[in-house]
Design brief:
Blueprint: H1 10-13, E1 16-18, E2 21-23, H2 26-35, H3 42-50, H4 53-60, H5 66-77, H6 87-98, E3 100-101, E4 107-111, H7 118-121, E5 124-127, H8 130-143, E6 150-158, E7 164-167, E8 181-186, E9 190-203, E10 206-217
Parallel strand pairs: 6-10
Antiparallel strand pairs: 1-2, 3-7, 4-6, 5-8, 7-8, 9-10
Length: 218
Amino acid sequence: MGKLTLPLLDSSLYPQIWQQQTLLNPQALLMAMLTADITPDANTFTRQLLANDTYQDWINSSVFGRYLQRNFTAFSQQTEDSFNIDMPSLFRQELMRHAQYLPLEQVLFFAGNLPKIVRQTKVLSTTVNPATAVINAQKLSRKVMMNNPTMIINQVVIRDKQVLGFPIRHNKRTSERLRNDVLILDFQDLRLVNEMNIKGKKRSNIEESILLRSYELR
């Protein structure tokens, strides 16, 4: 039996009304959030997602929760435990049985620098919630002790029909419900196609810059 392709979520989510602006696509919403004077509210977007029939199709078709995601990520990154050396591949093989193809042109987000190991393991944790990505990027930039912190935010567009992954079902009663994760599990090519510096708002006497990176995933 062949793998199914998830329906395109963005086609049912956009246009979006945010801060009295009509935004036609995820990239426009992300840019508006990055240049606004307020911190985006992840919960508002999560409520929209949970009320969206396509997103309900996504999470109801998934057998994976946050617990599995955490454990698989830990296994895939371990390099020193020789006794369990086969666990990442065994775990991955089992997950691949249930993974689905991600829809063409779907936009996903993640915060911070792209880990070097991603192109080797073909595993990338993303979110469909741009507000979550912005908040995570802000947290990461604050951890770096410097006078001119740079907030790094990334958007990824699916450009091939063979990209495999699965949405994560979160416990609706915890803060994890705001994550709206999609774990990408297999791809052929992850390419940086654009990088843009955005002037951030000044906090006290610290000038924060924002680096927006755009990737294509095949």
